Amino acid sequence: MKDFKVGIIQLPAKGDKKENLKTMEEYVTLVKKEGADVVCLPEMWNCPYQNSYFKKFAEEDFGETYEKMSQVAKENKVSLIGGSIPIKSGDKIYNRSYVFDKAGREIYRYSKINLFDIEGYKESDTISGGKSLGVFETEYGTFGLAICFDLRFPELFQTFRDYGAEVIFVPSTFMKKTGEVHFHLLNRARAVDTQCYVVSPAIARDYDLSKNAYAHSLIVDPSGKIEVDLGEDKNYAVLKLEANKVKREREKLPLEVSRKNRKL
């Protein structure tokens, strides 16, 4: 890993997809002007987080939103982690994230494995779970990518660490009730577990279709310190991620040495 600036964007998901695309483009341009090298969007940023909208807004692979993200990455010369969007594949819909390089080329994709099925709401009523997990390489280092509810499964994050990740992106849409008790806790825990930066842009809260969003997009350093918390409203931030912070934390607490030496 080498030092780079990451931009995170917190915007509300409106019922007008074209408005969402326009706002995304405006905000990527803003964070680029502040020096961002890598930009990450929230989960389901182009689509209100409701099963009915997943069906209504779902696109085929390489559709309108995909093309817009590719264009925005290329025009701004940024690496873009495209949050996630609903994607149709046959008779299924996936909660999928695409990653684009500075030339607008897709370099990685991930479909959310762990679906948000809780009392009173089931993402699986509409969304099908992905089956694979990995990391992707950029000019800045090795990155992991999870989505929202994946935060509750530490074994996934240990896999990222095993694969060499030093920064893990987690586009999210926590609801207010669960976010208040768990969002900061889980992001800090996963950062401490893996000794990675954890970057979790979330949907902003509004008084319309995103009124139940917890928001509070976070950047957490490898020691578990919260470096950025964007609150509730539409917002963005740019922060320099330092390779030496990852290195120092892993030297100070050599967890992998203990893993190799232990006998159960």
UniProtKB/TrEMBL annotation:
PROSITE patterns: CN_HYDROLASE. InterPro entries: C-N_Hydrolase, C-N_Hydrolase_sf, Nit1/2_C-N_Hydrolase. Keywords: Hydrolase. Residues 4-245 form the CN hydrolase domain. GO terms for molecular function: hydrolase activity, acting on carbon-nitrogen (but not peptide) bonds, in linear amides. SUPFAM superfamilies: Carbon-nitrogen hydrolase. Belongs to the carbon-nitrogen hydrolase superfamily. NIT1/NIT2 family. This is Hydrolase, carbon-nitrogen family. It comes from Peptoniphilus harei ACS-146-V-Sch2b. The lineage of its organism: Bacteria, Bacillati, Bacillota, Tissierellia, Tissierellales.
